[in-house]
Amino acid sequence: VSSIDVEALAARVLAGERAALARALTLLERDREVALQLDAAFGRSGRYACTVGITGAPGAGKSTLVSALLAEATARDQRLAVLALDPVSPLTRGAILGDRLRMESAAADERVFVRSMTADARAGGLSAVTPLAVRALEAAGWPGVLIETVGVGQSELDVVEAATTTLVVLNPGWGDEVQAVKAGLMEVADVFVINKADREGVEELQHDLERLVAAWPARRWRPPIVRTVAHQRLGAAETWAAIGAHRAWLEQRGELAARRRRFLELGLRALARERFDAALQEVLGSAAGESLLQRLASGEISLPAGSIELAARAAQPAAG
Ligand SMILES: Nc1nc2c(ncn2[C@@H]2O[C@H](COP(=O)(O)OP(=O)(O)OP(=O)(O)O)[C@@H](O)[C@H]2O)c(=O)[nH]1
Ligand SMILES: [Mg+2]
Description:
This protein is of the alpha/beta class. The chain is about 55% helix and about 15% strand. Strands 3-2-4-1-5-6-7 form a seven-stranded parallel beta sheet, with helices on both faces. Strand 2 (about 80-85), helix 5 and strand 3 form a beta-alpha-beta unit. It is globular. Guanosine-5'-triphosphate (GTP) binds near residues 58, 63 and 196.
């Protein structure tokens, strides 16, 4: 892709052409150099989206909730985009593709844009791809973006935590497991969604969540706890309202900008990390890397000393 093509593509994205946006997202996913050019071309669009990160255990009903929220948005005549993040994993791959098809039936509506993005979570790729994708959606004029993540690894947590509002989806019947769920997952919640509220154990879960939240510092946002039966769209309006209430709270406290910085920091760190990893790889493959490994093997230098030398070489522009 030549830089001329990128400029033209960016212009079409900024003009709101759906096909151009879809193409741009594919390029962002696949080619970081093109991503840099595209993002630079979008850079001054001055448009910002409200992002809603949705996380929870596999099968909790995140995608079903996303569908319900899409219906809620269109019922209110609001435009809403969805990014379904697909960490590359043989375990989750099939499920995600199924979700995507289900959500895309909602996407015949021009007020809705649904896209799944693939990234290698192990390499922190989700953290790099998500901010790039959100900026493309913003450039195309989407005012809101739902971000569904699968799994509760660090990379997914980073992504949802960088959203304007983070939804943690839980199911009744987990009982004691709430305590067992990674503390990190509960900590990032701005809204708790008890989905599958048609099942037993709703009161127990609600009680557990209330106790958890009661222990948080008073100046902190108190996450509302909403109940949903997502496949029947029950509770979608309440979830929508809870997202709005959190956003209003951030706005009132002047914290929207701080959330925005956190989001940008996520992208910054992830992209820089990718660069640094590539540089490390390059040094290791060079003569300097070979010599370093030899000195390590012969005991001439220690592992910590070797790592300092390696990092220093990788940090130089013309490494190796
Ligand atoms: N009984 C009941 N079933 C539900 C509810 N919401 C979703 N489900 C069902 O739960 C299953 C999983 O729903 P998904 O929306 O795919 O869950 P998910 O969290 O997106 O799953 P992954 O993306 O694989 O992590 C589906 O069979 C849904 O129909 C609910 O409120 N009540
Ligand atoms: Mg899903």
